[in-house]
Amino acid sequence: MGKIIKHIGLICFLSALLQSCSxxxxxxxxxxxxxxxxxxxxxxxxxxxxxxxxxxxxxxxxGVDPHLYKATQGDLKQLRAADIIFYNGLHLEGKMGEVFxxxxxxxxxxxxxxxxxxxxxxxxxxxxxAPDPHIWFDIELWSGTIxxxxxxxxxxxxxxxxxxxxxxQDYKSQLSELDIWVKQQIQSIPVDQRILITAHDAFSxxxxxxxxxxxxxxxxxxxxxxxxxxxxxxxxxxxxRGIAAVFVETSVSxxxxxxxxxxxxxxxxxxxxxxxxxxxxxxxxxxxxxTYVGMVRANVNTIVRGLMLIQ
Length: 311
Ligand SMILES: [Zn+2]
Hints:
Elements: H1 2-18, E1 33-37, H2 40-50, E2 54-58, H3 73-81, E3 84-87, H4 97-103, E4 108-111, H5 139-143, H6 146-156, H7 161-187, E5 195-200, H8 204-210, E6 213-218, H9 228-241, E7 245-249, H10 255-266, E8 272-277, H11 292-307
Parallel strand pairs: 1-2, 1-3, 3-4, 5-6, 7-8
Helix pairs in contact: 2-6, 6-7, 7-11, 9-10
The structure holds zinc ion (ZN).
């Protein structure tokens, strides 16, 4: 028995010379941190703090719906190779929960929403235990997740603490400017026209933070079905309030919102599609909407233009 252990020790020692004998969760200081993020918004946030000191992979690209997304074989490989995994949490990545549960036993897996005070989360009246996950639409709240990411990066890579801390401070300032800009833009819309109707309930945090009434055709997950009753209620609401524009989303099918436009038309009310909003995914990499800041700016411009269309 002792001989066998000696042999194993020797093999391990020899292979350690060629290649690390330890598992992938041990950090090798000679290479940058391997970081995997789920949605493009989470990846953008992490990128702004880690910059070129980390090697970052984002699993979900433009137009991808995180509520329905399932990890591919390629994703599992990336996740297994990562030093850190950041995800939104609050069940946004509803189909990946089991994967994260397994991985967090062997490596650093961080839901960035962890740490947000419970009373700042918007509750879904139908599912008390499942708060609304679309936290990135309240810029202040989103900025509040930076310390969670920063703490994790510093813990795994303390040599770069000053660099990460400086990046985090800079990005917090950028987000704070963005927050002020959004408030100013929304205030330019007459109060009674501040009503945002979209395909699914992604904008409740946005509405709360910036003072818009928000209605989504589907619930807070695109997994939920919308019924005939919901459709009739929403059509009546739009007609009664004389709402001029509704919005589609890049990561959700247009079909449902088109049925609302048609329902209003049948009641003699003309409602326009005010444009495409980025809800659960950012725009193409390299485009203006391909960063979180660009995505928010594009959305706000579309909302202001659409709601100012009024009759
Ligand atoms: Zn969503």
